[in-house]
Amino acid sequence: MLRRYRIAFMVNEPKFPLDEVGDSSNLFALALLSFVVGAFAGLVASAFRLLLRSADDWRAVVIAQAHPWGWLGLSLVVGGVALVAALAAWLVFRVAPQASGSGIPHVEQQFQGGSSGEPLSIIAVKFFGGVLAIGGGFALGREGPTVQMGGSIGQLIGRAFRRTPNECRVLLAAGAGAGLATAFNAPIAGAVFVLEELVGSFDIAVTVATLGASASAIAVSRVFFGQSPDFHVPVSGFVEFGDLPVSMLFGIAMGFVGVIYNRIILAALKLSASFSHLHGTVRAGAIGASVGLIGWFAPSLIGGGDNLTQQALDAQGSLAAVASTLALRFLLGPLCYAARTPGGLFAPMITIGSQAGFVFFLLWSHLLAFTAALPQQFAIVGMASIFAAVVRAPVTGIILAVELTGSFSLFLPLLGATFAAAATARLLKDPPIYESLRRVH
């Protein structure tokens, strides 16, 4: 009996076991190279973010100027988004199939020792294809491309300095963490994500290299984006213990939401695959046309969704408006992901979590004046809890939400909600999304 309990509480085996990396001199060399990897990853990811920002502005101007043209303007917007989506998909299918979708499942497969494709081709397709797809209005995140580009940069630098295959895997992981860190201006979340999701264990070589790469990547990116968190949230006091049960109840609800979201993503991919008689560029163009149609009537509802996340954090919008936006984005993200163009899941997921938190607050406060907590606090908790339910990486979700908003006073509700969300999703026997996507890809 005692032996059975001891086994039950043993630490899980790493997802992808990593042999020890040589002696201390090799570790020191990797640490130095990790700064180089991070600097290049930070530069490429920063350029990617700047281009996406310009594309968002340009898209809004084009849609606004096309409206006076009536049906002709509508046709130009719908056709334009369809065209750029088809071009992004063509780059993937023609040049680098490994650059499709988020890229994180491919990085995990590559870290495991699987086929990786040509790193330079992946970087080029992920960069330009991502700008076309996300800049064109697809509800996809910038972090998927930056993670895969960062990992490919780590692989290239490892090869250039003739490191061993194991050491190249370490630099691949370090570059991936640097890419995530730059995408969200979140250096700790980038490093923790590598250990929690990519490696699945604490490895000293990966830890040192990832921290070094994240640090140098953030040093580069903050030249362009400054020191402030990505989202602006008023400073609030520490949440009282009485709000913990409500946070856990919200986390349970988000566990169900995350499971449903996972299944919709997989269903969208399956539906897209059922049209395999159509070329991938045609399927992506059709999805792009639907995105363009939504953008014509509601330009703010398409794209990565940072504007919608900020609105939820600012507690802007009525219950009906936020709930309808949440329902639309809940379906639009998986639909866009099914196009297989470059683009990640984190940013749309964070948007859904923040809006769900705001909706939960409005509903609950309408029924019961239960708390002195602010609506944006539940929006932040929603960001972390849906991450825990979908990705099954609760520590990364907590740190990412804190670094994105600078809300260091919310650790108590964040802990309670992410615990409840991850446990609920696990009890429902729903696999983490990247585990499911590795099987699909």
Structure report:
With 441 residues, this protein is mainly alpha-helical. The protein has 2 domains: 24-225, Clc chloride channel; 241-440, Orthogonal Bundle (Clc chloride channel), CATH 1.10.3080.10. The protein is 74% helix and 0% strand. It contains 18 helices and no strands. The protein has helices spanning 2-8, 24-66, 71-95, 104-111, 119-136, 143-160, 165-184, 187-199, 204-225, 244-273, 280-297, 306-313, 319-337, 346-367, 375-391, 394-405, 411-427, 433-440. Helix 2 packs antiparallel against helix 6 (143-160), helix 5 runs antiparallel to helix 6 (143-160) and helix 16 (394-405) runs antiparallel to helix 17. The chain is globular and about 65 Å long. The protein starts with a helix and ends with a helix. Residues 1-12 have low confidence and may be disordered.
